[in-house]
């Protein structure tokens, strides 16, 4: 198979970092199964752009990853459409505060469903196809998987679970499938906004003194998929050095 025939399923790929990953992989020859839940318009727009660049290279899928029953179907639709699967990028995430003492079980379940459970069951569904291609998985975790974020205990715990999932899957799927993760620091400011004082405080804790970029995340994803042939079970902390402070 030529490189242009490789296929990647990228969850949460309609916007922001996920869209950056999808565009970058597509530019480097991948055919892409895009996924979104609540960003249907952005999903279709991105699919149109990429398909215009290379006809027959894109599939757009919509699914709610909180519904575990729909998770295997995402993989099957991608494989049915393209005939193979070489890479799974678990980028989809949800994020909201859950101050301790006020956390509701449904909040805990929602955060774990998207951030930890869905990546595990996507990997399980994708594993037979990835084994055939000697493919790879990249999970997007968070620096807060190891450095808890105040007022976000459930989110931090869910991302920590994804880090351990990365390591356990690396062991279970070796030697044919590699599994790694990226833990981003500050890449894009939250859409709900952040005060200038909070931005400044965060930059003071970032030795490289700047935001990262979606392109830097996307480049790291592609490196882990394509070039890091002797690396598995690892988390790349792409955070401008913030875990040093």
From TrEMBL:
- Domain of life, per lineage: Bacteria
Molecular function (GO) terms listed?
Answer: oxidoreductase activity
Q: Keywords for this entry?
A: Oxidoreductase
Which SUPFAM superfamilies is this protein grouped with?
Answer: NAD(P)-binding Rossmann-fold domains
The question of whether Oxidoreductase is a record keyword is answered with yes
Write down the InterPro entries for this protein, in alphabetical order.
NAD(P)-bd_dom_sf, SDR_fam
Q: Tell me the Gene3D superfamilies matching this sequence.
A: NAD(P)-binding Rossmann-like Domain (3.40.50.720)
**NCBIfam families reported in the protein's UniProt record:** PRK09135.1 (NF006598)
Family to which the UniProt record says this protein belongs: Belongs to the short-chain dehydrogenases/reductases (SDR) family.
**PANTHER family registered for this protein in UniProt:** OXIDOREDUCTASE, SHORT-CHAIN DEHYDROGENASE/REDUCTASE FAMILY (AFU_ORTHOLOGUE AFUA_5G02870) (PTHR43639), SHORT-CHAIN DEHYDROGENASE_REDUCTASE FAMILY PROTEIN (PTHR43639:SF1)
Tell me what this protein is called: Pteridine reductase
């Amino acid at each position: 198979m030529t490189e242009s025939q490789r296929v990647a399923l990228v969850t949460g790929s309609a916007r922001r970092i996920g869209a950056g990953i999808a565009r970058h992989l597509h530019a480097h020859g991948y055919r892409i199964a895009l996924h979104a839940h609540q960003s249907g318009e952005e999903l279709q727009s991105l699919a149109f752009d990429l398909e215009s660049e290379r006809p027959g290279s894109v599939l757009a899928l919509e699914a709610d990853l909180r519904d575990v029953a729909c998770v295997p179907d995402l993989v099957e639709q991608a494989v049915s459409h393209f005939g193979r699967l070489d890479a799974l990028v678990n980028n989809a995430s949800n994020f909201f505060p859950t101050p301790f003492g006020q956390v509701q079980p449904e909040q805990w379940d929602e955060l774990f469903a998207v951030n930890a459970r869905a990546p595990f069951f996507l990997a399980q569904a994708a594993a037979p196809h990835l084994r055939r291609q000697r493919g790879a998985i990249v999970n997007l975790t968070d620096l807060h998987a190891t450095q808890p974020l105040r007022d976000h205990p459930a989110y931090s715990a869910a991302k920590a679970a994804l880090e351990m999932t990365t390591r356990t899957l690396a062991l279970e799927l070796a030697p044919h499938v590699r599994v790694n993760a990226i833990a981003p620091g500050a890449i894009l400011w939250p859409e709900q906004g952040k005060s200038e004082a909070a931005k400044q405080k965060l930059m003071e804790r970032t030795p490289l003194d700047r935001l990262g970029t979606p392109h830097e995340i996307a480049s790291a994803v592609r490196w882990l998929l394509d070039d890091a042939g002797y690396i598995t079970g690892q988390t790349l902390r792409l955070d401008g050095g913030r875990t040093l402070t």
